[in-house]
Amino acid sequence: MASLTDLQQLLAERSAKRGKFTLSSGRESSLYIDARLTTMSPEGLVLIGHLGLQALEQSGWNVQSAGGLTLGADPVAYAIAFASGLSARPIRAFTVRKEPKSHGTAQLIEGPFAPGDRVAIVEDVITTGASALRAASAVTANGGIVAGVLAVVDRSEGGREAIQERGFRVIALTTADDILAQLV
């Protein structure tokens, strides 16, 4: 059974680093969470898939697809889609490119996303909320309906509030404080 404590411990062991870091937002921090070290591992994919699916089922959002801005959101969306594969309501995964492809179909959104889909925007780590909002904008512009944002980690640095100010609900599986509590 996938446990939130197991996910927090895995994030603490593999993804959390103390020191002096500049985050992608440009902010300075004494904590860096490279969630990809967890989200791209077999153990992390299993935990995130099951916990993410459970959170979405409990949310009542009734989404058909889940995805977000590449690269951080990709393994989260894929894990949830895989975990949902045998459920009564499978969830398709998609990814939002940072720029539309310059060849082929020139799409911004890749995968089985369809206009009219109720969508969960997923994110590995929320700091400012900018990546999730960028993905939500792309989904909305392509005919999707954003039900909310699901993050693996909320750094509790204003991102949740920025997303909520735009009218989207936010669920985080865990917080930076929860991960810090697991660090020894």
Question: What features would you describe in this structure?
Answer:
The chain is α/β, with parallel strands linked by helices and 184 residues long. The chain has one domain: Rossmann fold. Helix content is 38%, strand content 28%. The chain contains seven helices and eight strands; from the N terminus they run H-E-E-H-H-E-H-E-E-E-H-E-H-E-H. Helix 1 (4-14) packs across helix 7 (176-182) and helix 3 crosses helix 4.
What topology emerges from the helices and strands here?
Elements: H1 4-14, E1 16-22, E2 28-33, H2 36-39, H3 42-59, E3 65-69, H4 74-84, E4 92-96, E5 109-110, E6 118-126, H5 130-141, E7 145-154, H6 159-165, E8 169-175, H7 176-182
Parallel strand pairs: 3-4, 3-6, 6-7, 7-8
Antiparallel strand pairs: 1-2, 4-5
Biggest beta-sheet profile? 6 strands, mixed
What's the CATH class label? Answer: Alpha Beta
Strand portion: 25-35%
- Count of DSSP helices? 7
Mean pLDDT: 94
Structural class: alpha/beta
Radius of gyration: 16 Å
Total discrete domains: 1
Give the beta-strand count.
8
- Give the terminus-to-terminus CA distance: 25 Å
Low-confidence stretches: none
The assigned CATH architecture is 3-Layer(aba) Sandwich
- Principal-axes geometry comes out as globular
In the sheet with the most strands, the strands line up as 5-4-3-6-7-8
CATH fold group: Rossmann fold
Helical amount among residues, as a percent range?
25-40%
Q: Which labels suit this protein?
A:
184 residues; alpha/beta; Rossmann fold; two-stranded antiparallel sheet
